Structure prediction request, 178 residues.
Amino acid sequence: MATVYYTASSVDGFIATPEHSLAWLLERDVDPRGPMGHDDFMAGVGALAMGAGTYRWLLTNGLGEDRSWPYEIPSWVLTHRTVEVVHPSITPTQAPVRDVHRQMVAAAGGRDVWVVGGGDVAGQFADAGLLDEVWVQYAPVTLGAGSPLLPRALELELLDVQRNRDFACVRYRVVDGA
Ligand SMILES: NC(=O)c1ccc[n+]([C@@H]2O[C@H](COP(=O)([O-])OP(=O)(O)OC[C@H]3O[C@@H](n4cnc5c(N)ncnc54)[C@H](OP(=O)(O)O)[C@@H]3O)[C@@H](O)[C@H]2O)c1
Prediction:
């Protein structure tokens, strides 16, 4: 079991534009079943957590035409507000990250735990010593500004680098807070 921040980024380290657009990402060519692709990654994941901003983005842009939630696995949304719960697998929470992680691990049944983002939420898991790996798909673009990939000082060990069509896919182990 590993706790993994798996995300896509611009080359200059942003996961969304200042306007929260992902157009720079979604127009790219990627094989979801290719190296470090989404399908294989998801097959090993048993629970996920995301911040309220990412959840809002998904509700606005990321649901299918039938407005269905894309994940069946238990999902936690970190928020201080009341949010619309669009699937029974979703639990909004403002519990400490440590408690959320304990619940995620229990629900994941030995599979990995996915920290979806944003970057500060991944940082909160790292602050608590709970983040094991960072997987980044780098899109061939710079954005100049936006939501930072992982706004913390962390020492990382490079585990793997692979190409998936337009993307340079890199897998790191979190060594320690730097
Ligand atoms: N490139 C990619 O693959 C990728 C992946 C993920 C996200 N994204 C994008 O990145 C952007 C990230 O959005 P964002 O900057 O708003 O970050 P976010 O992490 O999605 O949401 C941040 C919000 O989550 C809530 N929150 C965070 N930590 C909390 C805690 N410990 N307890 C309770 N609530 C907590 C707070 O909202 P409240 O206090 O208001 O509730 C906070 O303002 C979005 O545009 C998203 O679509 C891109």
